[in-house]
Automatic annotation (TrEMBL):
<dbReference type="InterPro" id="IPR000843">
    <property type="entry name" value="HTH_LacI"/>
</dbReference>
<protein>
    <submittedName>
        <fullName>GntR family transcriptional regulator</fullName>
    </submittedName>
</protein>
<keyword id="KW-0804">Transcription</keyword>
<feature type="domain" description="HTH lacI-type">
    <location>
        <begin position="4"/>
        <end position="58"/>
    </location>
</feature>
<dbReference type="Pfam" id="PF00356">
    <property type="entry name" value="LacI"/>
</dbReference>
<dbReference type="GO" id="GO:0003700">
    <property type="term" value="F:DNA-binding transcription factor activity"/>
</dbReference>
<dbReference type="Pfam" id="PF13377">
    <property type="entry name" value="Peripla_BP_3"/>
</dbReference>
<dbReference type="GO" id="GO:0000976">
    <property type="term" value="F:transcription cis-regulatory region binding"/>
</dbReference>
<keyword id="KW-0805">Transcription regulation</keyword>
<dbReference type="InterPro" id="IPR046335">
    <property type="entry name" value="LacI/GalR-like_sensor"/>
</dbReference>
<dbReference type="InterPro" id="IPR028082">
    <property type="entry name" value="Peripla_BP_I"/>
</dbReference>
<keyword id="KW-0238">DNA-binding</keyword>
<dbReference type="InterPro" id="IPR010982">
    <property type="entry name" value="Lambda_DNA-bd_dom_sf"/>
</dbReference>
């Protein structure tokens, strides 16, 4: 079936193609009657404007590129919701690309977005290939790196210290009397690696040995994976006193596996997660976690991109640390030591 064209709409509406184009681009600049005739023809024919052609004729695309490492993990849902809420309301289309935790795929995504002439790029992460950094630095458009802090921001960097957050979570367990503390992670991406660095730093500062009871498996983080990782740790006899899980999904899975094996949380083992997802407060027992500001990150990124696009002043590289919060709950009890006589 041949594609419906601008000429088809013009013929049905009884006007010229130029008039149809004017109605579609600036509907308020034509009479209501003319607008209704063209709109009726567009709906009847199911006409979709050629966006590529429109972009060639204009310096504006009203498109913003967003790159995330995965669409599987729920932690990016609030972030993407905030970005859409801010950008779509301002008349922009949001193009989301999944880099699948690959810097090479991220590089390809950047090339594709720049090829579509997006007006800004927002990326979850700060680790890029040298070519990606070069492309973004030379693109002459707003670039926002989010979720972590960069020692060398390309443009605007909105995030938090993942290492400090990991250190804080581990110190919380140490302060409650635990010494044999495990670190559970699924995919050791850059942010998980930074949390592990924080865990290791806290253990070193407390002069506690690294017991090499880190359960790592390159899979998407999930409740099922958390259950599997704890089962693997338990079956090889490495049951710790406490566990720092790299996100709440793993922590919930570990708690469920503990229940199956008759291990009580927090009486026998304490568990802390990361991100403070919605279920953490209502889990049984409620889950201690590190709260990250995902919605606020997306909201601020959208606001700053819109401000940059509406300004004629070239912005300088800037970093905004949104921080994090330790949320202690029932899953991390104070360690009790009993002396038997």
């Amino acid at each position: 079936m041949p594609r419906i064209t601008l000429d088809d709409v013009a013929n049905l509406a009884g006007v010229s193609p130029i008039t149809v184009s004017r109605v579609l681009r600036k509907p308020d600049a034509v009479s209501p009657g003319l607008r209704l005739r063209v709109d009726a023809a567009v709906k009847e024919l199911g006409y979709v404007p050629n966006i590529a052609a429109s972009r060639l004729a204009s310096s504006r695309t009203h498109a913003i590129g967003v790159i995330v490492p995965t669409l599987y993990n729920v932690i990016f849902a609030e972030y993407l919701f905030a970005l859409h809420e801010g950008l779509v309301a301002a008349g922009f289309q949001v193009i989301v690309v999944n880099s699948r935790y690959s810097e090479i795929e991220e590089e390809n995504a950047i090339k594709a977005l720049l090829g579509q002439r997006v007006e800004a790029i927002i990326i979850a992460g700060t680790h890029h290939t040298p070519l990606s950094r070069q492309l973004l630095a030379q693109a002459r458009l707003p670039v926002v790196e989010t979720f972590e802090l960069s020692p060398n921001p390309i443009d605007l960097n909105i995030g938090m210290s993942q290492e400090h957050a990991g250190q804080t979570a581990t110190q919380h367990l140490i302060e409650r009397g635990f010494r044999r503390i495990a670190f559970l992670t699924g995919n050791l991406d850059h942010r998980a690696q930074s949390r592990f660095d924080g865990y290791r730093l806290a253990m070193q500062e407390a002069e506690l040995p690294n017991l090499e009871i880190i359960a790592e498996r390159p899979r998407h983080s999930s409740v099922v994976l958390g259950s599997d990782l704890f089962a693997m740790t338990h079956e090889r006899g490495d049951v710790p006193e406490a566990i720092f899980c790299t996100d709440d999904n793993l922590a919930l899975g570990a708690m469920q596996e503990c229940r199956k094996r008759g291990i009580r949380v927090p009486d026998d083992i304490s568990i802390i997660g990361f991100h403070d997802l919605e279920f953490a407060a209502c889990a049984a027992p409620s889950l201690s976690s590190i709260a990250t500001r995902r919605f606020e990150t997306g909201k601020l990124a959208a606001e700053r991109v819109l401000a940059a696009l509406n300004s004629s002043v070239v912005s300088r590289a800037e970093q905004i640390d949104l921080g994090f919060a330790l949320i202690p709950r029932e899953s991390t009890a104070i360690r009790s030591y009993f002396v038997h006589t």
